[in-house]
Every structure is written in C-alpha cells, then in structure tokens.
Design goal:
Layout lengths: L2 E4 L2 E4 L4 E7 L9 E6 L6 E6 L5 E3 L9 E6 L4 E6 L8 E8 L10 E2 L5 E6 L1
Parallel strand pairs: 2-11
Antiparallel strand pairs: 1-3, 3-8, 4-5, 4-9, 5-6, 7-8, 9-10, 9-11
Amino acid sequence: VQLQAFGGGLVQAGGSLRLSCAASMDTFDSEDMGWFRQAPGKEREFVAAILWNDDRIYSEEDSLKGRFTISRNNARYTVYLQMNSLKTEDTAIYYCAVFKGGRYTSPSAYRNWGQGTLVTVSS
C-alpha cells in the first residue's frame, strides 16, 4: 500500500488549495482515510477523516472549522482536502493515511502514511 500526497505549494493568505492523496490499494473503497498536518516544532494534528460510506469527521479546532472539506473519489483511488481562506498558521506538511482502528483524531490510529505535501501560506 502506498499513499502519495500532492497539491501543496505557496499560496497567499486568503487563497485556496486542493490537496490530493492517491492510494495504491484494491481495498480503497472500503477504507477510512484521514488527513493530518504537522507544522515545524509541533505535533502532528488531525484535520479531517472520511469514512468508507462518505461520512466525514472534522477537527474541532476553532481555527479549522468551516474552511476545509474532505472528499473522496473511489474510482480514482483518491482522497481530497479542499482548503479555503488559508491563513499563515495553516503552513505545515499535510499527510494522508489509512485508518486502522481507534480514535479517528489520533495519529496512532492510522497506518501507511504518505510522504506529505508542504503547504506554505504567506502573509
């Protein structure tokens, strides 16, 4: 199983980006998937998860609420993270991973982490 995240880059504050996570696994349509991010010097932080049945779980952090949307396209084995109204504090490496069990907001509940994609938001 391999996950490849891409779509990051440099964007001005207030702008948007859409991240993609391409998965190479036959069971993709039955897997729950998650997005996390990690800023320099900080712990990995839960952003959003999408379940096999398209249910979605979002971070309860006030700074994230209402700006990010997770979605999936099973035919393309891809999970997306649409990020709007970006802020400088959104600067981080964004990772996708496969849920293996436990608490959806915990990094330890995931496996097969991709290499991450860097998002830099300038002021």
